[in-house]
């Protein structure tokens, strides 16, 4: 396990950026176009509704597993970075993380 390896080497913690992108749906289905996005160019990220590549349920399971490992080491931490304009998504991370590990929330409103 990579996390245990580095903790055993003495690292104090980890920072994980863009945690909402950690897991992609196993079907690798194409993302549908976002309704009423106002974006008409399909080469732009905002054109799509990222239901298959963002905030997958398995992400929380992975974070819980990391927390269980970190709990066995004293004075270690993990910071997770979440970018999402949807407050409900951010709150889901906060509720889960409150008892799990430290989180850095960054809201990107474009």
TrEMBL record:
Gene Ontology biological process: amino acid transport; carbohydrate metabolic process
Protein's name according to its UniProt entry: Glycosyl hydrolase family 13 catalytic domain-containing protein
Gene3D superfamilies associated with the record: Glycosidases
InterPro entries membership: GH, GH13_cat_dom
Species assigned in the record: Armadillidium nasatum
Residues of the Glycosyl hydrolase family 13 catalytic domain: 1-94
